[in-house]
Amino acid sequence: MADKIPLRSEGQQLESILEGLQRDQQVREIPGWETGFPNFSRALGGLTSGVYLLIGPPSCGKTSFAKQLLDQVAKHNRIPGVFFSFAENIKELRIKTLARLSGMESRDIRRGSAYLLHWYGVPKTHYADAEGLPPSWDKLKKTAEEAQSWLDLIYLIQCGRETDLQRIEEQIREVEKIKGIDRSMVVIDDCQCLASSEREFTRRFAMVAEALQRTATALEGPLLAVGPDLREAPSPLPQIWSDRAPSADVILVMEIDPARTKQLTEPNLALTLHIVKNRGGERGQLAFDFYPAFAKFVEIA
């Protein structure tokens, strides 16, 4: 039988709390983990423990955004990242990551090394920092090697029908044990799969968010749950999600910006990320451009 932990009041623990704060003398611009998106980090105060819910229409880049965010958090903070996927193929996720890092289009990476050994011209759709990158297999390998130190922190896990929150938590604990770090960044893509499909769609999100809150509390880290907005008549007000998933700490609603999208080359998209709920900071809107060929999001000032 485990020893019973004695109860101690806040007053009794005050001295040790103050000593801990004094030891931590690092001055931080934000209290949470750096996201790699400066405006996003400032708005949220970085990523802290809790449930982050990302909602948006199909094919707007939610999975790519979640994977890029996970990678950037792991890289900037040197902590493990675990990505659970119910729909996206793990190989496809890896190709998207290589496309984003190398500036080479995903479809050309899929064609294999034999094709990539030949110059195929400047990418038809590119962003500023992709210019001048030689699209070759050697370049791809070099990019991967340069990223290996932080990619070693990333774990991609394919989920099946039998996957539940208990199994997800077990796998997260296993990753943290392997890395010797007791906190990690977690993404669950298509999180609605964790609830019964017999329930009304928006109710499923509320149930999942409530269950994930308990998991995030136990893990003491940020958990990003991603799901599509599949309602037949989506509300013109993204803020409606603040009431539909009350258990979430932060609710992000992704929306295509038609006016800005017209200024981009197809199939690129201009997106607005609405922060409709944020217990730890401000609410508002952030602008991003999404380049599907490279699975890359660029934050717009």
Structure description:
- The chain is α/β, with parallel strands linked by helices.
- It has one domain: 3-Layer(aba) Sandwich (Rossmann fold).
- The protein is 39% helix and 20% strand.
- The protein has 11 helices and 9 strands.
- It has a 9-stranded mixed sheet with strand order 3-2-4-5-1-6-7-8-9, sandwiched between helices.
- Helix 8 runs parallel beside helix 9.
- The chain is globular.
- 35% of the residues are buried.
**CATH architect. name:** 3-Layer(aba) Sandwich
The major β-sheet equals: 9 strands, mixed
- Describe the strand arrangement of the main beta sheet, using strand numbers: 3-2-4-5-1-6-7-8-9
Question: How far from one another are the termini?
Answer: 57 Å
Structural class: alpha/beta
CATH superfamily grouping: P-loop containing nucleotide triphosphate hydrolases
- The pLDDT mean sits at 84
In short:
This protein is α/β, with parallel strands linked by helices and 301 residues long. It has helices at residues 10-23, 38-44, 62-77, 90-102, 106-110, 113-116, 137-151, 165-179, 201-219, 241-244, 258-261, and strands at residues 50-56, 81-85, 154-158, 185-189, 222-228, 250-256, 269-278, 284-291, 296-300.
Q: What brief labels describe this structure?
A:
Rossmann fold; alpha/beta; 301 residues; 11 helices; nine-stranded mixed sheet; globular; 9 strands
